[in-house]
Amino acid sequence: PNLSHYLVLMLHFLKMGLDGFGALKCIRTADKKKKKKKEKKKDEEKEKEKKKKEKRKKEKKKKRERPHHFTAASVDNNKKDHHSKMPA
What we know:
This protein is mainly α.
C-alpha cells in the first residue's frame, strides 16, 4: 500500500463523513484483513504443495516396490506338496 492508496481511501472515508482518525482506523483494519486473507491463501497453497509432494512420494514408493510376478514354474512349485516324503 503506497501513499496515494492511503490518500484516495482517506478522501473516500472523509466524504462518507468520518473524521481523519476514523478513516485511518477503517483503512488500517481493511489492510489487516487483506493481509490476513493473503496469508491464509499462502498457507493453503503451501498445504496443497505438501499434499502433492506426499502423493508423489507415495506413488514413487509404490513403483519401487515391484509386485511379485508369478511365473509358471513358481506356480507349479507352490502346487507341489512339499511335506510329502520324496520317494527313495
